[in-house]
Amino acid sequence: LPAAPPAQVRARRRRTRQLRVGTVPVGGGAPVSVQTMTTTNTADVDATLRQIAEVTAAGCDIVRVAVPSADDARTLPKIVVKSPIPVIADIHFQPRHVFAAIDAGCAAVRVNPGNIKKFDDRVGEIAEAATVAGAPIRIGVNAGSPDPRLLAKHGAATPEALVESALWECSLFEEHGFTDLKIAVKHHDPMTVIAANRLLASRCDYPLHLGVTEAGPAFQGAIKSAVAFAALLGEGIGDTIRGSLSADPVEQVKAAHHILASLGLRPRKLEIVSCPGCGRLQVDIHQLAARVEAAFDGFPHPLRIAVMGCVVNGPGESREADLGVSCGNGKGQIFVRGRVVRTVAEHRVVDTLVEEALTPAGSSAPD
Ligand code: SF4
């Protein structure tokens, strides 16, 4: 079956510097990368590597692991060497963990120098070690963590407070000549995320990591993330994304891919064009769409499948898709590349779609 056609309209990407997180380029026109964070205890190497394998299979490009303890820091070399994708160490406060992460070969470190400076000012040494290792640093300012002086100045975690805080954090590295930086300014409110990133994009040329932090359970979180990412990526702002859903990291990665594919920034994998149903419905469309989605989960080629509940819009949408079914009278009319090839009983619809997807192009005989 043919690949879905490319999106007709694409945003021009904002020009940024480019850095490399291991093998993955970020910014400077590179494809927008997808990242997530493991939820395992990092020191549990097997569990962490298992989860990294799962998110990699789902299409994750870069994975971040939290390093809150010395035990976690000690396990980084094993994780880095076995991970199929670049690993970023996420560190707060402890400079010794930053050095351990760089020594372990982590592709990048997420650390805010403001936190380091407060307790043990080794920002210059970190800049030097990161330069030698070629490891970029990600500055991350969330709604809960702007610099207290800027929070007091702005009265709340406003877009201005987030951006000023992030640029101040960058300046602590810049004064040591280190500029291999990317920045995230995150908030749970998508409109604040949009305003903050627009402002940040106007004030620097560092690559930007987009995220709606603490976006909520999967359904709400995916929508909030999509709202913010669509507005920003539609303007060309954003170089790497994370969907911070309260859900399995695999779901975060899948949501991020759907968002990028919807914006024409990633090739589509599986797209189900299914109708919402109405009073004309002649089949349980919700169940049928879910069964088709499950049957094609992991299908290796891009595919658009129309699953339609009656003959009003069914044939039209089915003709536009790679595969389609238009239901009515207990039957499903099966379309392949715009042609009706079979009509089958309703209970045979899903299996027939799978058979047709696996049939070599051109060998289905029309009805
Ligand atoms: Fe209603 Fe038919 Fe449209 Fe589905 S395809 S929403 S059943 S008119």
UniProtKB/TrEMBL annotation:
Domain IspG C-terminal: 271-356
Catalyzed reactions: (2E)-4-hydroxy-3-methylbut-2-enyl diphosphate + oxidized [flavodoxin] + H2O + 2 H(+) = 2-C-methyl-D-erythritol 2,4-cyclic diphosphate + reduced [flavodoxin]
Keywords: 4Fe-4S, Iron, Iron-sulfur, Isoprene biosynthesis, Metal-binding, Oxidoreductase
Entry cofactors: [4Fe-4S] cluster
Residue ranges constituting the IspG TIM-barrel domain according to the UniProt record: 16-256
A GO BP entry: isopentenyl diphosphate biosynthetic process, methylerythritol 4-phosphate pathway
GO molecular function, one term: iron ion binding
Region Disordered, annotated ranges: 1-15
Record: residues binding [4Fe-4S] cluster: 275, 278, 310, 317
Note on cofactor: Binds 1 [4Fe-4S] cluster.
Entry-linked InterPro entries: Dihydropteroate_synth-like_sf, IspG_bac, IspG_bac-typ, IspG_C, IspG_TIM, NO2/SO3_Rdtase_4Fe4S_sf
Biochemical pathway: Isoprenoid biosynthesis; isopentenyl diphosphate biosynthesis via DXP pathway; isopentenyl diphosphate from 1-deoxy-D-xylulose 5-phosphate: step 5/6
The keyword DNA repair is assigned to this record: no
UniProt-listed Enzyme Commission number(s): 1.17.7.3
Enzyme class: oxidoreductase
Family listed: Belongs to the IspG family.
Function recorded in the entry: Converts 2C-methyl-D-erythritol 2,4-cyclodiphosphate (ME-2,4cPP) into 1-hydroxy-2-methyl-2-(E)-butenyl 4-diphosphate.
PANTHER family linked: 4-HYDROXY-3-METHYLBUT-2-EN-1-YL DIPHOSPHATE SYNTHASE, 4-HYDROXY-3-METHYLBUT-2-EN-1-YL DIPHOSPHATE SYNTHASE (FERREDOXIN), CHLOROPLASTIC
NCBIfam families: ispG_gcpE, PRK00366.1
Protein name as annotated: 4-hydroxy-3-methylbut-2-en-1-yl diphosphate synthase (flavodoxin)
Gene of this entry: ispG
